Amino acid sequence: MSQIDDLQLLLKKLPGIGPRQARRFVYFLLSADAGYIHKLTTTLDQLRREKSLCSFCKRLYFNSNNKVLCPTCSDTSRDLSKLLIIEKNSDFENFERSGVWNGKYFLVLKNIGVTEDNPQNRLSLDRVIKEIESGSVNEIVTALSVNPDGEYTTEYISKQLRPYTETHNLKLSSLARGLSTGSEIEYADSETLKQALNNRK
Ligand SMILES: [Zn+2]
């Protein structure tokens, strides 16, 4: 296999990129000027070195002195008793841009596939359950995309957390009913997110 094929394979791993697009990227990168390539590699390298993973919400964050919790999880001006379960970092950014949620977040990082065995090995809700049991969190809303994996994951989470609605008076709801089929949280506009939040059930 040629080095060009190696680079194509690496680029094909990017989300949403097929083999032909990956090939176009290869030729773009190979013909780009040295300054661009240097900037690209040093920026990536610097971001990788400065990134931290929040020990609670699993979100990526940068340039913070607090190496345990991200600025959102430690922001006492937010209502930290409310928790929004989302899939990924870009969904977090969309909610924050929209300004429709003032609680904290928890990222599942990748929805559970409908054919996936033992989802409990990959998606642990232990930290969330601890927050419920300690009384720190009293409302949880799942906000996952309306597609088969997203709906399956919502069901899985609801099943795990439902007992706490009885024992700990937890308010548990889902955004799914306020969104149309196929809706991706990442691309939803702020009005849609706001309405879905208001219609949570
Ligand atoms: Zn966090």
Topology of this structure?
Elements (H helix, E strand, L loop, with lengths): L2 H10 L6 H13 L2 H17 E3 L6 E3 L19 E5 L2 H10 L5 E4 L18 H8 L5 E4 L5 H14 L1 H5 L3 E4 L15 H9 L3
Parallel strand pairs: 3-4, 3-5, 5-6
Antiparallel strand pairs: 1-2
Helix pairs in contact: 1-2, 4-8
The structure holds zinc ion.
Question: Oligomer, anyone?
Answer: single chain
The main sheet comes to:
4 strands, parallel
Coarse structural class: alpha/beta
Quick check: average pLDDT?
91
Encode the helix/strand succession as letters. HHHEEEHEHEHHEH
Helix percentage range = 40-55%
Name of the CATH class of the largest domain? Alpha Beta
Low-confidence stretches: none
Tell me how many strands there are.
6
- Tally of helical segments: 8
Number of domains: 2
CATH architecture of the largest domain, please?
A: 3-Layer(aba) Sandwich
Radius of gyration from the alpha-carbon trace, in angstroms: 20 Å
Q: What topology, given as strand order, has the largest sheet?
A: 4-3-5-6
CATH topology name of the largest domain: Dna Topoisomerase Vi A Subunit, Chain: A, domain 2
> Span between N and C termini?
53 Å
Name every ligand kind in the structure. zinc ion
Net shape:
globular
Strand content: 5-15%
